[in-house]
Amino acid sequence: MSYFLNLLMSGLVIGSLYGLIAMGFAMVYRATGMVNFAVGEVMMMTAYISYNLAQVPGLGFMGVFLAMLPISMLLGWAIERVFIRPMLGEPMFSRVMVTIGLAVVIRSAVILIWGVEPQPYPRLLGDEVIRLGEMALYPSQIFSLCIMALLCLVMWAFFRHSRVGIAMRATSNNETTALLMGINVNRISGIAWALSSFFSAMAGLAFCLMFALEPEVSQMGLRGFPATILGGLDSVVGGAFGGLVIGVAENMAGGYLGRGLKEIAGFVLIIVVLMVKPYGLFGQREIERV
User: Fold this and answer.
1) Is it the case that residue 181 has pLDDT exceeding 80?
2) Which of 68, 100, 154, 180 has its CA 20 to 30 A from that of 42?
3) Domain range list for the chain
């Protein structure tokens, strides 16, 4: 029983990272209808920025956390304003290719500035093991779970009760109608990219608190994308849930069936779910009249 519980908890921890990344993918898709393939690279860049902030004497974890909030959102807004907004009206394929090119540029810039050697990230939350019954967790793992749960709650309230969230839902349903109703679509797009960058930053911070900091952090972006598909590309909270499901599925498969099956367990799960629910677990079904 102890082995099962530890597999479950470690699966939820890695799933929370997938979930945060999936929320970044889904936020942009929900507002603009496009897939941002630079999520992993934004995660990597913000992780390195937080690393520099962590070196400041006396700043501590809360200082780094609070500093990353405006920095990450400003970075996301700048990316949208400089690279994405000029592409409005262009084919979706061209806009997606811009994000792929942007990912390459960000990765190269990070390597040029910080190098390729792994950096030991400061243990801002300490290394003391916290025991919950038969399970043992580090503070960084608890942070990852808690920040994802908090952001899910905030996003649920944001889309249901805030004017900006409702405007974002309207824009995702029909951009032309939203424009006719007086919604500033450009502003909505900028907010979506800023929030997406913040989710990526939280994923990067949580990852580095648990592991080392290196350019390969960006690969987590592609590993988190299946969680977006599973939860539903247009569902931010659904993407978080999809990340948890995939994280647990991978860990259980690796623990009971063999490590070789760990990497494919999530994709097998996605295939099975999409055969039943093509739009994901929480995705919105699109109905077209012909």
Assistant:
1) no
2) 154
3) 23-217
